[in-house]
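Hi, here's the filled form for the chain we discussed.

Project: internal
Contact: R.S.
Residues: 369
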Amino acid sequence: MVRNHSNHGVLIVGNYCHDVLIRNGTVLAETLGGAASFISNVLNGLSISCSLIAKVGHDFKYETSYRPIIVPTSKTTVFHAYFDSISAPSGHSDRVLKRVCSCEPITPSDLPDGKFDYGMAVGVGGELLPETLEKMLEICNVVLVDIQSVIRVFDSVDGTVNPVPLKESGFYHLLPKIGFLKASSEEALFMDVEEVRKLCCVVVTNGREGSEVYYRDGKVKVSPFLANQIDPTGAGDSFLGGLVTGLVQELAVPDAALLGNFFGSITVAQIGLPKFDSRVLQRVKDEVQRRKLSCSERRDEEIEFMKPEGHEQFHSFLCSAKLVSACAMQECLKDFPVQTVVSRKARLFSLRKEPSCELHFAYPGFVLE
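And the returned structure, exactly as it came back:
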């Protein structure tokens, strides 16, 4: 897999959507959703150039950094996420996801002219067509695919999301041309990882266990980060944003995945689209640049899958950067009455009896304190 730096930056393809979080019949939060929104949020924070193709309906009301394609005859994609309980001992959330409305799919003609270094196929509601992914493979040097964009099908009655095996998705024949396929540990059950890793690099996120990178000749485990979880929505998308940022900055894949784990862990500590502290972002950008320069002598334009020298030190640095982020969040909380903050957390999820109010979910690259 060879890098090419003569093109544009990153092309993100996937619709924006409206997310409604529901618990026991009560609407707890309504936010801007869609993998594209979370990924572009990370890329913007780290000053990575990107283009975004997303479709929305005439009812779309959010302000976004990248203007979507408005389809006057359609409604915006809407998802209802039902959170009912926490299952022990695994700590996974019992979530039922339903697509209530869906916007038009993204077609090859919707994609821009020109070439891109990296493409990200990150549909959420069935908007990514095989022919659209084929076009992305033509115009992008390396394409990252979120498996949810290709294996999700939706119940014809109530829209419940039901994944199908990857081999039955209609996209399997394109795997040899894909650079990276990202899946959660639950989604990975819908493919044969040992078989797929021979066709493309597979990145599996596994919650408190971190993430694993599977490639043709081996696999690498990437460490997680501590996180006080409030809302798991978008954690996997932020992971992808960190991963592609690392690749753009010519980091080895394990370092890039570590950056993904880092942003996933920050995302779960906030409700909805996360806000990143500017001091943390600057520290991360400076360290990434330093690592890029220090590793430049080993570069031969091939993407590196082995852990580079200093990988553990990079993890330690990101842990310290998270402390700055945590302190910043505490300062923000001081601006609100304690009762307001506690009640906001309590409304979103069923809290345990411990005063820390942390929850256990399996999302990429984080563990709970």
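Let me know if anything looks off before we file it.
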